[in-house]
Amino acid sequence: MNRWTSLQILKRGWYRFWHDSRKIPSPVWQQWAGTLALGLGICALLTFAMTIAAKTQVDQGLQAWDARWLPVVAEQLPLNFARSITWESPGNLLGMLPVVGIFVGIMVARSQPLLVATMLAAYSLQFALVWIGWGYWNRDRPGLIADGVAASGLHSFPSGHTVVVITVYGLLAYLWGRATRNWVERSLIAIAAIGYIGLIISSRLVLGAHWPSDVVVGIAIGLLWLLTVVTTLHRLKL
């Protein structure tokens, strides 16, 4: 597929999204935006509070706790170092963009502009929450496992991988589960989603890319933001 063809596909997709969006009454869009904005504000305040609390406690025992438990947790998790390199991939930028892009493309084709906008907002705004922690506290990455070879130079707290996989894959699991009334299928979806997300998150600890507290707070932020997104869809009865 050449560049011109790609641009034409994007242009047609945007036109269809815009055309379908105009069919939805303005009050619905206002309620959608208002709920997301309120939830984002609450999540931002809680993220800031958790970051302040963690930074305050880092010299009061938190760093020692992290350093003691990271090797223990990494040893007990059901992944080795080599497999963790593969498992972290679905949570990085290259692994996540195709997932978001395919979902958006399908929803555009099915004339579901609110779901398109929700996924794009959920994915993009989670970065704002992570950057709150990164901006306030430039915590160093661990160097305890493989001399920190898998720990990037970016800020450690909170775990961005954790937040984004809970947000995106959690939203996909919610939409899939809501589409069926079979409780067995819903249970299997929940188990599969928790297992898949759990392995991606676990890979970051096995690789020594994050301290345990980075991941714990990342889970909290991800769940709060996912709850906001789900609540928005529920209010709109989507």
Structure notes:
The protein has 238 residues and is mostly helical. It contains eight helices and no strands. Helix 2 crosses helix 5, helix 2 (26-76) packs antiparallel against helix 8 and helix 5 runs antiparallel to helix 6 (160-178). The two termini are 34 Å apart.
Short description:
With 238 residues, this protein is mainly α. It has helices at 3-21, 26-76, 81-87, 93-109, 113-136, 160-178, 183-206, 212-235.
SSE series: HHHHHHHH
| Quaternary form | single chain
Number of helical segments? 8
Alpha-carbon distance between the termini? Answer: 34 Å
Percentage of residues in DSSP E strands: under 5%
Radius of gyration: 19 Å
Helix fraction by DSSP (H/I, runs of at least 4)? over 70%
Shape: globular
Q: Give me the secondary-structure category.
A: mainly alpha
The number of distinct β-strands equals 0
Q: What is the arithmetic mean of pLDDT?
A: 90
Instruction: Report the major sheet.
Output: none
- Which consecutive residue ranges, at least 5 long each, have pLDDT under 50? none
